[in-house]
Amino acid sequence: MTSDAHLNELGQFLKLRRAELSPRTVGLPDTGGRRVPGLRREEVALLASISTDYYTRLEQGRIQPSVSVLAALAQVLRLADDQRDHLFELVGRRSARPRRRAAPKVHAQLRRLLDDLTVSPGVVIGRRMDILAWNPLASALLTDFEKVPEDKRNCVRILFTEPSMRTLCADWRAAARGCVSHLRMTAAASPDDPRLTGLVGELSVQDKDFGRWWGSSHVASRGRGMKRFHHPLVGELVLDRDTFTCGSDPDQELVVWTAERGTPSYDGLRALASGASGRLGGPAADQVDWPDGLIRPR
To answer: Best label site of 14, 234, 296, 297, fewest CB within 10 Å?
Structure first.
């Protein structure tokens, strides 16, 4: 049984580690005006998806945390393996170190489907809504995924942290709330996933809307729907979105945006595809026969 002395030592360890981290280290804005160095208690609590009161009692040595809370705190506080082991030992637990997993490999069939899409933007997403693969047209429509660090390529994170998404998506609030609702379904199926916990905590601190929508407990699955975009190069695009689950790996899904042939949105996608192929070594954008009324990329 864990002694009061060990719980007090746990609280002191958490307090000292919290003081060693700057907001920028954990992806938070540094607004200044801090009376003490390091992270605030409420910031650690939010990042770990626990209440501030619960975390305060941990630092005061009044309660013994569960394994899932310890795992979340180890993730939030950026503990090295030996520090993580010490954290667990303080409460008489064994540390189950997370395995260092390589990035999920995109299923071959989804990769082929993605490569064959020439006039339709498409992305392959994983269980946490991580972006695993994309075609050139998806980058041209949404954002340059190649410039996003691999550990930050996540649909929800990009939607909330990339300013251009708020003007690109005609109804950003509806799109963002839908992503939060779907992420809640994932969290319910994987409550002890430290990466998912870290993502939720990070976005809860950075964006008040995310925190409020996450707290509403609304859930929804992804499916088909209509999305309207205000693209800076080709103007308004009204696209149908469909989601296809990989039969041999249900954790991977192909999301595709399409438009009916002959519509202005279809012409816009063709123009965008021509510009994308020019950037990738195909015909130069100024050599493409662009549909009337569409802006050529510079």
So the answer is: 296
